[in-house]
Amino acid sequence: MRLEVLKNDCFYHIYNRGINGCVIFSNDDNKLFFLKKLKYFATNSFKVYAYCLMDNHFHLIIKVINETNITQQFSNMFNSYAKAYNKQESRTGSLFEKHFKRVQLKDEVYLKNLILYVHLNPFHHLNQDYKTFQFSSFASILSDKETNLPRLEVIDLFDNIENFMDCHLLKQEFLNEIYTLE
């Protein structure tokens, strides 16, 4: 399988899960540590537009701002997290599935739909309220607290904050209908 090369000024969906679907975040401290690593490694290389950390997988939507060694930086970040997690859990071996997955987002429609998908992950997988889920960028985008997320750029994709929230509600209603039909 040929892995997508990460290029400047392009958006990507970066995701992975625990090997064999195993847990990669045992507690909130693990998730906070992962976000701290993400912030550190993102500096000068990429911007995180959206994220969601579930117990056994994660999703990131990024825009590359400096492609130099970015794949290696992601690799270093995931390896660093895995080593710390393995030590904490007294485990050995791989934590993540082989290579982190990356898909280039070709247009704005795909980007907006993916932001909705990432934010609605807690609803989809855990039947939890995505608006209050602690380890998603949804609340950070709506908040007025300081963040490294390009909050205004994300809101501008949806034209305004009201439409940002409405699009999430409509997508959730759509998912509710699908689940009801199953």
TrEMBL record:
Annotated protein name in UniProt: Transposase IS200 like
InterPro entries in alphabetical order: Transposase_17 (IPR002686), Transposase_17_sf (IPR036515)
GO BP, sorted A to Z: DNA transposition
Organism expressing this protein natively: Paenimyroides ummariense
Domain Transposase IS200-like: 7-121
Pfam families cross-referenced by the UniProt entry: Y1_Tnp
Coiled coil: none
Molecular function terms from GO: DNA binding; transposase activity
PANTHER family: TRANSPOSASE IS200-LIKE DOMAIN-CONTAINING PROTEIN, TRANSPOSASE, Y1_TNP DOMAIN-CONTAINING
